[in-house]
Amino acid sequence: MVRFRKFYVSILLLFICGFVHSSDANKEFIKGLEYVIDGDVIKAKDTFKKAIKIDKFQVYANHSLRILSDYNNKVIKKATTISLFKALLNNENKKYQQALSDINESIKLNSNYAYSYYMRGTIKIYLSQFKQAIKDFDKAIKLNPRDADSYYNRGLTHGYINALEKSLSDYTQAINLDKNIYYAFYNRALIYQVIGKFDLAIEDYGQVIKIHPNFSFAYHNRGLLYERKKEFGLALNDYDSAIKIDEKFSDAYNSRGGLKMKTQGFLLAIFDLEKAIKLNPNNGQAYYNLGLGLYQNTQYESSIKNFSNAIIINPNNIDAYYMRALSYRFLEQPNKAIEDFSTVIKLSPKDAEAYDNRGSTYYLHLKNKIKGCADYAKACQLGYCKNHNKAVHQKLCN
């Protein structure tokens, strides 16, 4: 039995505060941080505004203007402000321990400023200190219950520790506070997708696209859901949109190629699958889909090469071992087939089809009745009885 690619989500809990930004906007944001640290607040403001003009979703540039407004309104003093911006700069440069030291200094100078706790929580996410991060977001929310981003990042952190109900609750609260917080809609959609609430996920991806029409990941993941619901036309439209927005989106090419292979035939899928691999040579799912198409077109040696590449990238890719085993069997290499079926069984002990096919390989190709019948019986115990019943009926097995 051919195994089409598994339904999967390409990116899970992708951002801390929606970080998919224009590189030009990021450059301006970093310049602005440096201006503040050097004491030039006016230039810093102008630069942050420039970053936002380039990319209105540059979250930290918006945050930085808020901090400067608090400084100008004497909510926080200069030393607190400088420590905060040092933390932001070191965080941006991935110097997380130094950023943590800076933000601790900021909190020491002013223990009642909500954003400092928000920022410390964010840094702790990068350091994988999730429980401590949650405590900081709790404090930030206590000091400023109207801050949507604190709820968002707490939701993100709950997601990292698999507390999905709490994560959903926080994303929903963030959305209630800010109807344009597209990254909360996006991550909530991802969780709905993972837990099987597909219609709710589709609705949230639609909101993401409404707010941020050039967000290619939302189109791609909604396309996966439409494909799962067998609404192939809508799925293809979303994959097309994702690729139009981002011509280097390897996963979108792979998904479109996989869909074309199922609905239009392998020849129309080849370009997309090869393009996906060219864009990302580590795209194991694309190698798998290409191998599947080659297998269906009886090009077994080529299919084996692609399944092998998929396995190199992900040694736990059960479907790739399974399909490579079938390919080996067609090439009359039963021992290699049995080795791969055995790997599938080791990785997935309740895989009835793997037992059944290994049984057929033993029985029909290696003439090993004892092992073949044992595997047929095991497959039947797991719910796949076709070959076992046939063999028993014909008195080939007990």
Notes on the structure:
The protein is mainly alpha-helical and 398 residues long. Among the domains are: 9-178, Serine Threonine Protein Phosphatase 5, Tetratricopeptide repeat (Alpha Horseshoe); 189-246, Serine Threonine Protein Phosphatase 5, Tetratricopeptide repeat. The chain is 75% helix and 0% strand. The protein has helices spanning 23-37, 41-54, 59-72, 78-92, 96-109, 114-126, 130-143, 148-160, 164-177, 182-194, 198-211, 216-228, 232-245, 250-263, 266-279, 284-296, 300-313, 318-330, 334-347, 352-365, 369-381, 386-393.
Compact summary:
By secondary structure, the chain is mainly α. It has helices at residues 23-37, 41-54, 59-72, 78-92, 96-109, 114-126, 130-143, 148-160, 164-177, 182-194, 198-211, 216-228, 232-245, 250-263, 266-279, 284-296, 300-313, 318-330, 334-347, 352-365, 369-381, 386-393.
Keywords:
single chain; 398 residues; mainly alpha; Serine Threonine Protein Phosphatase 5, Tetratricopeptide repeat; 75% helix
The appropriate CATH architecture of the domain at 9-178 is Alpha Horseshoe
How far is the first residue's CA from the last residue's CA? 25 Å
Helix count, DSSP H or I runs of 4 or more residues:
22
CATH class identity of the domain at 9-178: Mainly Alpha
Q: Mean of the pLDDT scores?
A: 93
Question: Which sequence of SSEs, written as H and E, runs from N to C?
Answer: HHHHHHHHHHHHHHHHHHHHHH
Alpha-beta content class: mainly alpha
Radius of gyration: 27 Å
- Fraction of residues in H or I helices: over 70%
- Assign an overall shape: elongated
CATH topology of the domain at 9-178: Serine Threonine Protein Phosphatase 5, Tetratricopeptide repeat
Percentage of residues in strands:
under 5%
Unreliable stretches covering 5 or more consecutive residues? 6-13
The CATH superfamily of the domain at 9-178 is identified as: Tetratricopeptide repeat domain
Work out the number of β strands: 0
Q: How is the main sheet built? A: none
